[in-house]
Amino acid sequence: MRPRAFLAAPVLLAALLLAGCSVGRVADSPTLFDLGPDSAPTTGAPLPARVPIQLAYTAAPALNDSGVVWRVGESASPRSYATYRWSQPPATLVRERLIDRLSREGPVMADSAIPAAIQVQVTLMRFEQVFATDGQQSEGRIVLQAIAVQNRKVLGQVRVAHAVPAATQDAPGGVQALRRATDAAADEIAAWLARTLPPAAAPTRAAP
Fold first, then answer.
1. What are the extents of the domains in the chain?
2. Which tens digits make up the pLDDT trace of 87-143?
3. Is 49-196 in CATH node 3.40.50.10610?
4. Least packed by Cβ within 10 Å: which of 13, 55, 81, 191?
């Protein structure tokens, strides 16, 4: 059930294949995926502890659906695998992974917990498997936009885009590539915050 068939066969035949060839029978329950444990921990020296932040997170509307999305090149026609789904929408999975990663360097609070705190606004813009036009290779691609704001002043902004080659040209291969791309993107945002935000104040010692 590979999108390569869509590229080489008539559109109707490809649609039937991607639908799981379920004509005349009850479709099987879809296979569910998540991002699994963090497989790409930060390498090198640990980042300095940073100040607490509030995470304000949003995602493109399409990423609130649990379909495993693929497309050919930069086509404007995204599709979803019929028999594979995410256990939660990608918007939720990426948010959880981002909180886990950023929490290593300092507290991550709910949005609006402290009005004067530094707010990090993150938008998930893209999360999908992208095939070459010949169907012989694909990548898991993720794009995030992050802005750090304090008291209405922009401290910095960054656009993070990662593309990781898929080992196999199917849904499991795309999911594994997206896992690695997400971990790399979360590490990049953590490193950007370490450069952009002031470090956490050192604890004061009581006078002897």
1. 49-196
2. 999 999 999 999 999 998 888 987 666 767 899 999 999 999 999 999 999 999 999
3. yes
4. 13
